[in-house]
Request: fold
Amino acid sequence: MDAIAMVQGYTALGIGMIIGLGAIGACIGIGIMGSKFLEASARQPELTPMLQGSMFLLAGLIDAAFLIGVGLAMLFAFANPLLSKLAG
Amino acid sequence: MAAEHGRSPTDYIVHHMTHNSVGQGFWTWHVDTLVMSAATAAFVALLLWLGARRASIAAPSGLLGFVEFIYEFVDGKVGEIYHGSSRGFLTALAFTLFTWIVAMNTMDLLPLDLPAFVAGAAGHEHAFWRVLPTADLNGTIAMALVVLFLVIAYAIRAKGLGGYLHEWIAAPFGNHWALWIPNLVLNAVELLAKPVSLGMRLFGNMFAGELLFMLIALLGLVAGEHLSGLLGIGPAAAFLGQVVFGAGWAIFHILIVLLQAYIFMVLPIVYISMAEQHH
Reply:
């Protein structure tokens, strides 16, 4: 009974850290990229459509690792393999 | 499903996260992924064929204009990135990937309990069916493995088998015998990182989006149950609540769907063009 509570508690902490730290990285990355895009767009407005295409591509790539982390965290939240190992 | 009280929210989510599978262990087939990906591919192919069949310069139809718009977009992108000889094949590849992945990802926007409603009418109310093939890691890694195979095939075609194997031990550090192991390790990591990141990126985005839809559906389910107590409307209210709350997230998710399909289209073209160039 103790072991189950311990595993659940640490798993909850782990989920929070995965999502929180991943979000920090993703948001700072998008912020830096967005600021460079706005700067370049203000400097040369005629390049905006081309830069916007690349910006969306980069946004998807930056979000990738964070969302993989969210997927893993959700797995731990709802179908915790550590817990099933304990029970089984 | 809404009529069963005493089912915890976790049970609801676990039920919706279970695949309809056949077999066990390594040989588990996810029937819902296979059927949904084949069905969306057939639907997209039918739509494009119908659009192209009426191709005439005199009286272009709306569907033809739409197909041509997507084709020009994809062809322009491929032309920007790839400057080799198989332009036609790569445009076809990019077009297939983009339209198929958009079609598969759009399955995410269906209401979550719709398959259960349909199955309930046929009498199988507790069957598992996940409608989103790209939220299954098997689905996305399968596509990424095909891309890996194409990258290797193009590299061998451009450099010859001997040249390609020589490059494995000679690039990027140099052709000294002491550098063979580091070169090999770096090349292996670089080659394997491509399909893994490609598959997992699409999977992560779609799985997280689908899970958020499930959580919103849970909210709708609970709200529906309270409403049914007040007004006596029952399961229909739960379904309605889920649709309304899900609409907000769906609007944001449409952007993610298109963006992830665009990324999955552009990156294989970039990888193939890099595979042909490296010397």
In short: Chain A has one domain: 2-87. The mean pLDDT of chain A is 88. The longest helix of chain A spans residues 2-43. The interface with chain B takes residues 56-57, 59-61, 63-64, 67-71, 74, 78-79 of chain A (CB under 8 Å).
